[in-house]
Design goal:
Elements (H helix, E strand, L loop, with lengths): L2 H7 L16 H10 L14 E2 L11 H7 L10 H13 L4 E5 L2 H12 L5 E4 L4 H9 L3 E4 L20 H11 L6 E5 L12 H14 L2 E5 L3 H11 L8 H10 L3 E5 L10 E5 L2 H14 L10 H14 L2 H20 L12 E5 H4 L9 H13 L1 E2 L1 E3 L1 H4 L15 E5 L7 H16 L7 E5 L10 E4 L1
Parallel strand pairs: 1-10, 3-4, 5-6, 6-7
Antiparallel strand pairs: 2-8, 7-8, 9-12, 11-12, 13-14
The structure holds ligand P71.
Length: 461
């Protein structure tokens, strides 16, 4: 029964280089977990069997990209690879001007500092950790304007990342459009479960913002994955190429920040791309202070070449179908076992619903952190907490944010793991699920000031 499905997303590549995986014993993992303070970010990669912490910078490059690395032009200024990258961004994303950065948050820093004045508001379709922090550091306040369905793991909606125009309008009425420098639209929305935004919604947001003089800035980190969902779910796009959908999406925005470490299939790199000359000029001024000269932005020439080639590969139909097909494969298996996950399955990851998985734990006992730790202990598989620890604290009140979504993310690097690894992952989750009632929560014993999830430490209650 599964054969046709399997064929439909079979990897459109074969393996040329392999990297051995290390198996560990439960004893080893117990020790490693205690040393890491029950935080999967603090585990040594050596102690991990299948690493589903993130799809960020963990993908496998192609022979075409590696060949490009050898063509790195490491001149300080005006590297040939910068121009290749500029051409790729113009061709596939359609923006006029490019500012390379070392990764996504470098671009977020620059755009936030340029456009945000203290006391302004930045609406967005759900927060992302680094994006919101840069907005706050610039003196702005993030306001969530995603549709309600996005906060409900069980709500079936084909475009759960959509912006709620009523929420946006309510904010404009409350604070005034002049207090809103721009809206951030994540395509797809990572924290909602890799959920896409429809083309219709992107158009509506564009029209509304144009009327009110508000810029539209995309977080284009996984825009190609979003394009795939438009192609497969939105009426009228089934016969449109991924490349054409991506370009149409971007045409409804003024700029984007990009972490090349995801869609663009590189281990490091990012950019800010813009259409407005004035903002570009300011960004070029700033990039030399924080990242590097405007023709390298903290990257080596070879890194820019790999990203230019990665962009080209990212929009290939076979690639994106296999990439998302793999994630959907795992999702279908877990759903069949009755494991609570965010539905519909998103583009880059399976998100376990830790509140439903461990209903006996209070949110302050860190259900998602606990579940990620247990999955590691069970199997050596590393996942990531995306719940109360990631949400952090309200800057004004000092209280924890209590996000509705308390999730564990099993994130799939692109072109790295095989279907057998997927099967092992499903089996491991099923084993933890079988003993879920006996799992106890955690307490936080060390809390860093910024982006606490990276370095926080926990102990068993
Ligand atoms: C992910 C990451 C990497 C990450 C970042 C922060 C905490 C944990 C892990 C990075 C993104 C992203 C979106 C939508 C901007 C960035 C920052 N994601 N926007 O999912 O997903 O990009 O890491 O290149 O600076 O594991 P950067």
């Amino acid at each position: 029964m599964e054969t046709p499905k399997r064929r439909s997303w079979a990897e459109p590549y074969k393996i040329k280089v392999v990297e051995p995986l290390k198996m560990t014993s439960r004893e080893d993992r117990k020790r490693a977990l205690e040393e890491a303070g029950y935080n999967t970010f603090l585990l040594k990669s050596e102690d991990v069997y299948i690493d589903l912490l993130t799809d960020s910078g963990t993908s496998a490059m192609s022979d075409y990209q590696w060949a490009g690395m050898m063509l790195g032009d490491e001149a300080y200024a005006g590297s040939r690879n910068y121009y290749n990258l500029e051409r790729a961004v113009q061709t596939y994303y359609g923006y006029k001007y490019l500012v390379p950065t070392h990764q996504g948050r470098g671009a977020e820093h620059i755009i936030s500092q340029i456009l945000i004045k203290p006391g302004t508001y930045i609406p967005g379709n759900m927060y992302f950790t680094t994006t919101r922090l840069h907005q706050e550091l610039a003196g702005g306040k993030f306001v969530d304007v995603i549709i309600d369905e996005a906060h409900d793991p069980a709500a079936e909606h084909p475009f759960k990342g959509n912006v709620d125009l009523n929420k946006l309008d309510a904010l404009v009425k409350k604070v005034g459009a002049d207090k809103i420098p721009y809206i951030t639209v994540g395509v797809t929305v990572n924290m909602a479960g890799g959920q896409p935004v429809s083309m219709a919604n992107l158009k509506e947001v564009r029209a509304y913002c144009q009327k009110h003089g508000i810029r539209v800035v995309y977080d284009a980190t996984r825009a190609v994955e979003n394009a795939y969902f438009i192609k497969t779910r939105e009426k009228g796009y089934a016969d449109t190429s991924i490349a054409a959908i991506l370009k149409e999406m971007c045409s409804y925005s003024d700029a984007c920040t990009m972490s090349g470490k995801k869609d663009a299939l590189v281990n490091i790199g990012g950019f800010l791309a813009l259409n407005e000359w004035d903002v570009f000029e300011e960004a070029r001024n700033m990039v030399v202070v924080y990242e590097g000269l405007h023709t390298y932005g903290g990257l080596a020439g070879r890194d820019m070449e790999a990203m230019a080639r990665g962009i080209e590969e990212s929009v290939q139909e076979d690639h994106i179908r296999a990439r998302i097909g793999q994630v959907e494969y795992v999702g279908e298996k877990l759903l069949a076992l009755g494991v609570p996950i965010v539905v519909p399955v998103g583009g880059h990851a399976i998100f376990l619903d830790a509140k439903a998985f461990l209903p006996h734990l209070k949110q302050i006992e860190f259900p998602a952190q606990t579940l990620a730790a247990e999955l590691y202990l069970e199997s050596g598989i590393r996942s990531m907490e995306r719940g109360i620890v990631s949400a952090g604290r309200n800057k004004e009140t000092g209280d924890h944010y209590y996000p509705k979504l308390e999730l564990v993310r099993l994130t799939f690097p692109r072109r790295v793991y095989t279907q057998a690894h997927c099967d092992v992952t499903v089996e491991a989750v099923a084993e933890v699920f079988a003993r879920r009632n006996s799992i106890k929560g955690l307490k936080m014993v060390y809390e860093p000031k910024y982006l606490r999830f990276f370095q926080a430490r926990f102990e068993k209650i």
